[in-house]
Amino acid sequence: MYLTKSKVRELMEQAERVALDKSTCFTPHRKTGCIIYHMEEDKVIAIGWNGSPTNEFACDRLGDCIRDTRNIPSGSDIHITRAIHAETRAVLIGVAAGYNLGKCALVINKRPCSACLKLLIYVGIRTIYYKHEYNDPFADELLRWYDDIKIEKVTDEK
User: Which pTM was predicted?
Assistant: First the structure.
């Protein structure tokens, strides 16, 4: 079961709004938002954004990005951050609400990193739509192993 292109574009717009409105990242290009969409129930069941677990230590509030301060390249040392990833937050929200995520698709403005991809695989999400690339070669390797995952780059073309 897959989503129509128009539905994916609509959900991608929502994911991008979530990133802009809720992400607490200090660096604009790191802002990430996602939607978990239940394909059988035809509804959004969770949203996620990257940011600190509590606003107390949010990068935008503190005025710096620990990754930028330490010159950590994108896609490496992903554990060195004050934030949890958008996918992690959305999965936690969906599971806490009691949903079977195996019947869901993820729509996200940035391609998932390998850590989040493993989480998505574990909870049964096999359909992923993303807009922007994320440099993580191990995520590509995981996708070769788990060939039942549909991952599709979304463009602005109609």
Answer: 0.92
